[in-house]
Amino acid sequence: MAEYKLTATDIVIRTADSANIPNDPDNTGRQQYERWLADGGVPDPYIPPIPSAQFDWGPRFIEVIGQER
User: Fold this and answer.
1) How many beta carbons lie within 10 A of that of residue 21, not counting itself?
2) Strand, coil or helix: 9
3) Cα–Cα distance, 38 to 42 (Å, whole number)
4) What's the whole-model pTM score?
């Protein structure tokens, strides 16, 4: 695991404490991140969440609860 993790936005997560680092050049966390990148650091990629599967609440649901609504 890298020291930082990318997100779907321009915010970066510092993995040590889960801090959100905004894309603000005056932010000391962002300055540390930029130095870390310049020194060859590679952040963990953003991995989008897996969408939840759609469930068909059809005949099987009626079978499970034992009655129609």
Assistant:
1) 20
2) coil
3) 10
4) 0.72
